[in-house]
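Reviewer 2 asked us to include a model.

Predict the structure of this chain.
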Amino acid sequence: MMNQKTTVLIGYRHLLLRQALRTALTMTGEFEVVHEAADGKDVIESAERVQPDVILMDTQMPIVSGIEATAHLRRTGNRARILLMTLGADDDLILAILRAGAAGSILKDANLTELTRALHTLARGGTYLSPEISERMMQNYVRFAERPRDDAPRRELLSVREREILQFVAEGKGNQAIARDLTLSVKTVEAHKAHIAQKLGVRGRTELIKYAIRKGLIELESETAMAQPVAA
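Predicted model (C-alpha cells):
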C-alpha cells in the first residue's frame, strides 16, 4: 500500500517560478500540488476550499502579503501548516513571520533537499527554520539576553493611546494603517511612536517590541511569543 502524498498549496506571484516549484515537488513523488496561487487573497480563499496539508508561500505576495495571509489563516483556524519563503534572514521579517504564526521559514535559494525536508517536517506537525534564520535568531537572543535589564515596571509611563499604538505595531501594522484605524494623522502616529521609544528607553522597532513583550506591555494572541511590524 502506497503512502499518502502530502498535499501542498503553492503561493508565489511569479508564474515561471511557481510552475518550477510545482514540477520539482511533483517529481519527487512525495507531494501533490493541489493549487497554485498568484496572490495572498487567492491563498486565503483556496486554502479554505482545498484544505492542503502544507502551504508553501512567498512572504512578498500581491494584494495580501504572505505574512498577512498567514495571520488570517491562523485566526480563522485553517489547519494547514505554513512554510514562508524569504530572501534573507532579516530581523524584522523573522519576527513578523513568527508573530503571524507560520510553522516555518525557508530561504528562497534553498535546494530541493532542504525544501522537501522542511515540508515533510511541517506535515508531521513540526516546525522548520533554515539554518541561516536559526543562527540569526540565536544571535539576536544572545544580544538581548546580555543587555542590562531594568525590571522596574514601565507600563504606567505610557498613555492609553500610546499603549494602543504599541499594540498595533506589535500586530504588524504600519503607520498608515494605524492612523486609519485610530483616525489620526500619520505624523501624529510617528510622534507617538517616538515618544513611546523615548519613554521606554529603547531604540529600533525590533528592540521596542522585544521590550514590550518582556514587560507585558502588549497582548499576544499566539504561542509564537514574538512580534514585529512589517511596515514602518
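DSSP finds ten helices and six strands in the chain. Residues 221-232 have pLDDT under 50 and may be disordered. We have added this to the supplementary material.
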